[in-house]
Design brief:
single chain, 0% helix, six-stranded mixed sheet, mainly beta
Length: 62
């Protein structure tokens, strides 16, 4: 599972293991009781080391 570091929006600085099947497009959409958010990968792709491991940065469109 890829690690995603969310930048901006309702999940700012949260790191998640995202199932590879959900990262088949360039957009992640979250819809849940706590938050709603749309995220896209940085261009060019960037990553940061987090306590959970190296994570790819995805930016909020909100």
């Amino acid at each position: 599972m890829p690690l995603i570091l969310h930048w901006g929006g309702p999940r700012h600085r949260e790191v998640d293991d995202v199932p590879a099947a959900q990262v088949t497009t360039s957009v992640l959409v979250y819809d849940g009781p706590r938050w709603f958010g749309v995220y896209v990968p940085t261009e060019p792709r960037q990553s940061r080391v987090t306590p959970q491991g190296e994570a790819e940065i995805w930016l909020s469109l909100d």
